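The protein record quoted for completeness.
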Amino acid sequence: MRYAPPKARVEDVVPDLLPGELALRLTRLWAALIDTGIGIVLLVIIWLVAPSDIDVWGLRHLPDWSEMLLRAALGYVGFLALHGYLLATRGQTIGKALCKVRIVRLDGSKPTFVRIAGLRTGATALLSAVPKVGYMLALVDVLFIFTKSRRCLHDFIANTKVVQA
C-alpha cells in the first residue's frame, strides 16, 4: 500500500558507549560524588579519632591564608593517599573505576602520574585555595564540563579528557 505506515519496528535504545568515547557528563558527576563521599567518610573518621582539645596541626597560630593553604595541602595529600595508586596505574580514582571511566591524554594515551597529580589535580587544588576567588575558580572549573568537548578546566590545564574505560 502506498500510504501505509512503515512496518519496521523502531525502539529508543541508548547505544552502549565504546571504550575511548567521551564519558557522559552524568557519569563524571557520579564518579565525583563517589570520590567526594569517600573523602567525607575519611574526614569524619579522622575528626572522630583526632583529639579536639589540642591544636594537632598547629593551625591556630597561622594567618588565615596560611591555614587555608595548609588545609588544601593536607587535603591534597589525603586525596593522593586514597587515589594515588589507581591514578598512577590506570588513570582512575575510586569513583571513576566504579563508574567505568578513566583519564587519558587527548591522543588516548595514558597520562603520567605527574601530569594527573600535578597539573590536573594539584594546579586546581592550589587555585581553589586562593582566598576570596578560590571558590569561584572551583565553580568555573566544574562548569567547563558543559562545553562541547565535555572537558573541565583541569582537563584543559593538563591536556586530558575522561573517556569510557
Q: What stands out?
A: Residues 25-49+62-164 form one domain. The mean pLDDT is 83. Helices lie at 25-49, 64-90, 94-98, 113-128, 134-143, 153-158. The first helix runs from residue 25 to 49.
